[in-house]
Amino acid sequence: MTALKIVTAALLAFAAIAASSPAKAASDYPTSTLAEYVYGCMKANGETRDILQRCSCSIDVIASVVTYEHYVEAETFKQMGQVPGENGTLFRESAPAKAATTELKRAQAEADIRCF
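User: That's the sequence. What structure does it adopt?
Assistant: Structure tokens below.
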């Protein structure tokens, strides 16, 4: 399977999952996605009430900057990029992967400035 086919297949799979949820505004993330982000953020930064507020603020900023579909795409590239070897390289170094992860990193930087 070529690199482009692998990337395309992964994106189509996650797009189908995102499209199967009820119609929402572009920046309206599902509750489970928000909770998962806040949980991970708190595990990384501390489990205090203050960090809960900061992590909640952080995902709100990200959601205001990045559409849910783009967020899913970037997270997919991040997760799949952790696969060792050539298959993981495709998800780290392809142009779509770099564009998606750059957009998410910029949103996270904005969230860090506003919330932390």
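The CA atoms of residues 6 and 106 lie 26 Å apart.
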